[in-house]
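Re: the 56-residue chain
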Amino acid sequence: MMQNDVDLDWLEEKLDREDYRKLEKYIMNLCLKNDELIFRLGFRYAWSLFTECTEK
C-alpha cells in the first residue's frame, strides 16, 4: 500500500463524502486482513522452524 501513488484530494473531490468514507473503510479492512494473513503465515513458519529445531 505504501507504493501506491493516489491523489486523495482529487478522489475526495470526485466522490461524495459517504462514498469516500465507504472506500476508506474498505481499504482499511483490506489492509487489516493482509496484516493478519502476514502475521499468521509468519507465525506458522516460526512455529515450524521451532519444532524442527527441537526435534534434532
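The radius of gyration is 19 Å.
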